[in-house]
Amino acid sequence: MKRLLPIFAIHLLLLLATGAAAQSDPLPSWNDSASKRAIVDFVGSVTKEGSPDYIPPKERIATFDNDGTLWSEQPAYFQVFYLIDQVKRMAPEHPEWKTREPFASVLKGDMKGVAASGEKGLLEMLAATHSGMTSEQFADNVRQWLATARHPKTGKPFNQMVYQPMLELLNYLRANGFKTFIVSGGGVDFMRVFAEQTYGVPPEQTIGSSLKAKYEMRDGKPAIVKLPDINLIDDKDGKPVGIYQYIGRHPVFAAGNSDGDYQMLEWTTSGDGKRFALLVHHTDEKREWAYDRDSTFGRLDKALDNAKKNGWLIVDMKNDWKVIHPQQ
Fold it and tell me: What CATH code would you report for 32-320?
C-alpha cells in the first residue's frame, strides 16, 4: 500500500495539472492553429500595460456581425424564415402580394427571388408585416416564433445553431476588458430579443437594420410603435455609419464572414495602433456548409481576395474549429 500512495499522488497531481491547463485555455473549441495563436497574441499585446500596443479598456471596442459569424445563415438568413412565416400567415389579407416582390417570391417558395431582394427586401417584409405593432408586441411575436420554429435541415431551434468557438471568443474578449457589440444587417429589434441570453450582448450593444418608430399613447399607456419606413440598412457601408452613430468609438477588433462586412473590417483596421479583423470562412460541408463566392446568402468574394493584403485573419471553419455548435 505504501508503494501505491506515491503513484496515486502522482496521478492526482497530473489530473489536477491537466484540469488547470484545460481551464486556462480561453478558446477550448479552437484547434491549436495559427488562427487561435493570432487571436491570443493580439489580446495579450493590447491588454498588457507597458506594451507598445497597449489599448486602454475604454477603447477596447469589438464588433461582430451576426449571420454567418455568430450563428449559421444557410439555406437563408434565419430572420428570413421568420418573415416568411409572417408573410404566409398574413397573405390572405393582402392579395396584392401575389405580384409584388419580395412577397411574390415568398408565396411561390422561390428563395432565390427572396435573396435577390437583399436587406432592403427583408426590411420591406418586416415593415409590411409589423408596422403598427408596438415594440413589446413585436418582441413577444419573435419570442413565440423562436420557441417553436425549427431549422429545416437540422431540426434544431434556430438559437441553438450558434457557433461555440465564437461564443468563447466573445467571452474571452470580455474577460480582457473588451466591450462587445453586434453590428449586423439583420433587424435590430429581432436580434435584441435573443442577443443577451444567447451571446451575452445586451440590447444597447446590439446594432442592426431598423425601421423608423414613433411614440404614442395606446389604451392610456405610452408605447413605441413601428412605422413602415426604413431607418437604417446596417450592411456594407451602412455598418461603419451605424457604428459611428450608435457606438461613437472606432473598433479595434471586428469579425465578419462576408462581403457585407468588408467596410466594417476595412474601417476597423484603418485606425491608429494595433487592430484586428477576422473573417469566418465556411469550409466545412460535413458539420455545417461550405460556401463563399457563389453563395446567395453570405457571399464572400471581394473580402476573401483582399484579406491577406489587408492583414485580416481568415478563420477556416473546418480546420480551426474542433466543434461548430454547442453540444446539447
Answer: 3.40.50.1000
